[in-house]
Design a protein that fits this description.
Layout: E1 2-6, H1 11-26, E2 30-37, H2 42-56, E3 64-69, H3 72-81, E4 87-91, H4 105-110, E5 116-120, E6 132-136, H5 146-154, E7 160-165, H6 171-186, E8 191-195, H7 200-213, E9 218-223, H8 232-241, E10 250-254
Parallel strand pairs: 1-2, 1-4, 2-3, 4-5, 6-7, 6-9, 7-8, 9-10
Antiparallel strand pairs: 5-10
Length: about 270
């Protein structure tokens, strides 16, 4: 699998590179750095990219560098959509004022890119091997699509899944929990179920806290923000989650309805 990590030379993006390197080595994949710069900064960026390549590559793990010129959102989206990418790794910063009312740049990119994402919060300082994945169970009909990706990853980095559901689930959530357990059983992926909060809103607000308490190493969800400008609830949840104060990486699988794919296999996995 080929992964890419987005680099803009901020501290957050360097942390993402460190995490992406360790993650990609664990699944025996390939990693490429992607940077978009202005034309007048191209020479400086090229030098810094080569320095990062040298620092993070090794005899058995050679990182490729891609440097693009132009608009960040347009160039990243076009590059990702023209390649077979497994995961796009990116660091996150504190939410800016306007991002509380409109989608952030990364949310825009994610909703137009044909790839799955791993967000590395700014307060995560080091990679930790994945031994447990927290997967919240919501009522949304298409919120279980990440199980296929988890099943694939489990072949390379064995882990358990912690399914989290609120204590008073809706009929839809109950059905999703039943389906999730059947899918995990079929994939021979060990799991446990834990309740948190008395409503789905409680679960969403506390999912990062629960993951920290449960000693999970990553949270996995499906991107249900879609491209609807007025989908404020899911967008706000996603914006907060990818910047969680607990410092947990967030593995986001694209919603196949709004993507352009039929399975995780098409996302760079061969």
């Amino acid at each position: 699998m080929k992964n890419i990590v987005l680099i803009d030379f901020t501290e957050e993006s360097i942390h993402a590179l460190d995490y992406a390197t360790q993650f990609t080595k664990a699944i025996k994949g390939n990693l490429e750095i992607l940077n978009v710069s202005d034309d007048d900064k191209s020479a400086e960026s090229s030098q810094r990219l080569e320095e990062l390549k040298k620092q993070y590559s090794s005899a058995d793990f050679d990182i490729k560098v891609n440097e693009l010129i132009g608009d960040i959102q347009e160039e990243i989206t076009e590059f990702v959509n023209n390649e077979k990418i497994g995961f796009v790794f990116c660091g996150t910063h504190e939410m800016k004022f306007l991002e509380r009312f409109f989608s952030s740049r990364m949310m825009h990119i994610m909703n137009h890119a044909k790839a799955n994402f791993v967000f590395v919060p700014h307060n995560l300082k080091a990679y930790r091997p994945i031994e447990q994945v927290l997967m919240p169970i919501f009522s949304a009909k298409h919120s279980l699509q990440n199980i296929e990706a988890l099943s694939f990853l489990n072949h390379f980095m064995p882990f358990t899944v912690k399914l989290a559901i609120n204590s008073k689930p809706s009929p839809e959530s109950k059905t999703n929990l039943m389906v999730a357990t059947k899918l995990l059983d079929a994939a021979n992926l060990p799991y446990a179920v834990e309740t948190f909060g008395s409503s789905e809103d409680d679960l969403k607000k506390g999912v990062a806290d629960l993951a920290k308490i449960a000693k999970s190493d990553v949270i996995s969800i499906v991107n249900l923000t879609e491209q609807n400008l007025f989908n404020f609830g899911n967008k706000g949840f996603m914006e907060d989650l990818i910047r969680n104060k607990q410092g947990l990486p967030i593995l986001v699988i694209q919603d196949h309805r709004t993507g352009y794919l039929s399975s995780f296999i098409t996302q760079g996995i061969h």
